[in-house]
Amino acid sequence: MRIVLFSLLLVVLQGCSAIKLGYNKLDDLAYWWLDGYADFSAPQTDKLRAALGQLMRWHREQELPAYAVQLQQLQAMATDNITPTQICAVWETVQKRLDLWAYKALPGLADVAVDLSPKQLAHIERQWAKKNASWQEDWLQGPPAQREQKRLDALVDRYESFYGNLSAAQSKLVLHQIQQSPWTPEWGWQDRLQKQQQWMAVMRNFQTRTHSPEQAQEVLRQLYLNATSTTSGPGFEMRQRLQQQSCANLAQLHNATTPAQRQKAAQRLKAYANDFKDLAGS
Q1: Number of structural domains, the chain?
Q2: Of 177 and 26, which is predicted with more confidence?
Q3: CB within 8 A of 257, min separation 6: which ones?
Q4: Given its phi and psi angles, is residue 124 left (phi above 0), alpha (psi -120 to 50 degrees) or beta?
Q5: For position 18, what pLDDT does the model report?
Q6: C-alpha closest to that of 100 among 224, 191, 194
Q7: Contacts of 155 (CB under 8 A, 6+ apart)
Q8: Measured between alpha carbons, how far is residue 224 from residues 161, 219, 237 in Å?
Q9: Is the pLDDT of residue 11 over 90?
Q10: pTM of this prediction?
Q11: What is the largest CA-CA distance in the chain?
Q12: How many angstroms separate the CA atoms of 5 and 115, rounded?
């Protein structure tokens, strides 16, 4: 769920002009994404669409104002040097908001998850197999230098969407950070498979046992925590290391930017904040 929510949030943050349009379609995007895996029946579709619509109404009213405030704080930080501690503090705030969003989604998702048929679970496994093959092609096949370059290109594109064009020295810094990362494609692959196996085991369990709505929600909540927590659960040490390194990397790159690049980042954050304010009031 966190992956779905965060991925969809990134979709609408690809450009200021796309935020309002993307956010207003977020419940549709979430449904289409999930339906691509599960191939919902008509009754399941009705339940899920109703739940997603309710979730987005809550998010617009309760969360978007907080997002706007957070972005204004980031805008104030953007023109100065920053520390890894500051970055991690911001991320912890964002994580709490994502967690709350996920928990609010649990009733609707649990209601549909306990109703999935064996045919639908087989469909999910086939979709995972397709995605896994693509993932392996991207990250486990080809020369290491080629895979490293792909990671570099993706990160540089992400940074340039905020700061503008990076210099050769800044791109070299990003490459060095990639080379020092504890993340490896092999670890990423095993972590991916483990999460899929855990989700499938839970969904198959839903078919063989009767769960109350509260029990189903608690099972999914625990599964979510096991997959995202940096303080407990399987693999939390690696997630903790990756988070700490990400904070250090972003602080290091930001502190290597020019005044013009920082100003561009501040302007982008201001535009995001204004758009979220408009959306909250619409």
Answers
A1: 1
A2: 177
A3: 163, 170, 265
A4: alpha
A5: 63
A6: 224
A7: 174, 178
A8: 30, 9, 16
A9: no
A10: 0.87
A11: 60
A12: 22
Residue type, 7: S
Round to whole Å and give the CA distance between 42 and 55. Answer: 20
Q: Give the structural domain span for 10.
A: 2-281
Torsion angle in degrees (nearest 10) through CA of 95, 100, 101, 103: 120
Task: Kindly state the average pLDDT of the residues 52-58.
Answer: 93
In angstroms, rounded to a whole number, what is the distance separating the alpha carbons of residues 279 and 57?
11
DSSP string, 67-118: HHHHHHHHHHHTTS---HHHHHHHHHHHHHHHHHHHHHHHHHHHHHHTT--H
| Angstrom distance (rounded) from CA 132 to CA 232 | 26
Q: What is the pLDDT of residue 129?
A: 97
Contact 20, 275 (CB under 8 A): yes
The number of residues in the chain equals: 282
202 contacts 219 by C-beta, under 8 angstroms: yes
- Which residues neighbour 266 within 8 Å (Cβ) at sequence distance 6 or greater? 75, 78, 79
Q: How far apart are the first and last CA of the chain?
A: 26
125 touches 200 (CB < 8 A) = yes
Q: How many helices (H) and strands (E) does the chain have?
A: 13, 0
